Amino acid sequence: MTPEEGIRRTLALYCQLCDDGRFDEWADLYVDDAEFHVMGITHRGRAAIKAFIEKGQPPERRGKHLCANPLIDLDEGGTGARAVTDYVFVGRAGGGLAITSAGRYHDRLVLDGGRWRFARREIVFMGDQPTG
């Protein structure tokens, strides 16, 4: 598997594991001291990131993440990368389904234990600007 394929796999697992409520596996996509920045707040460490997502994604609020157009830039040493990926989230709304969020993920990933994990993920909602 090339580094880009490994990174795309991590990006896809983020969506599928979150959508399925598999938060132990989802949290394992992050390095121990990762940062997850969303809505002006930075959650630090795998445990804090998992606690945040579990609270924010109870079964009745889960939907489907759809990601596209990942731009991946590998660091010169090949053990780090930056990725920027567009996303749309389809959730339950008014008894049906609707796009409830759209934006872009800004990621720093590292090769850790033979797999690509998030060192930092920032969710930038459509119309906002990234902070990091």
Shape: globular
Structural class: alpha+beta
**Biggest sheet, spatial arrangement of strands:** 2-1-6-5-4-3
Return the string of H and E elements: HHEEHEEEE
Count of extended strands: 6
Provide a count of the helices: 3
Question: What is the CATH T-level topology?
Answer: Nuclear Transport Factor 2, Chain: A
Strand percentage lies at over 45%
Q: Please give the alpha-carbon distance between the first and last residues.
A: 29 Å
Unreliable segments (pLDDT under 50, ≥5 consecutive)?
Answer: none
**Integer count of domains:** 1
CATH class: Alpha Beta
CATH architecture: Roll
Average pLDDT reading: 95
User: Cα-atom Rg, whole angstroms?
Assistant: 14 Å
Helical content stands at: 25-40%
Main beta sheet strand tally, sense and closure: 6 strands, mixed
Question: What do you see in this structure?
Answer:
The chain is an alpha+beta fold and 132 residues long. The protein has a single domain (3-125), classed as Nuclear Transport Factor 2, Chain: A, CATH 3.10.450. The chain is 25% helix and 50% strand. The chain has three helices and six strands. It has helices at 3-19, 23-27, 46-56, and strands spanning 30-38, 41-44, 64-74, 80-93, 96-112, 115-125. The protein has a six-stranded mixed beta sheet. The longest helix has 17 residues, at 3-19. The mean pLDDT is 95.
SSE blueprint:
Elements (H helix, E strand, L loop, with lengths): L2 H17 L3 H5 L2 E9 L2 E4 L1 H11 L7 E11 L5 E14 L2 E17 L2 E11 L7
Parallel strand pairs: 1-6
Antiparallel strand pairs: 1-2, 3-4, 4-5, 5-6
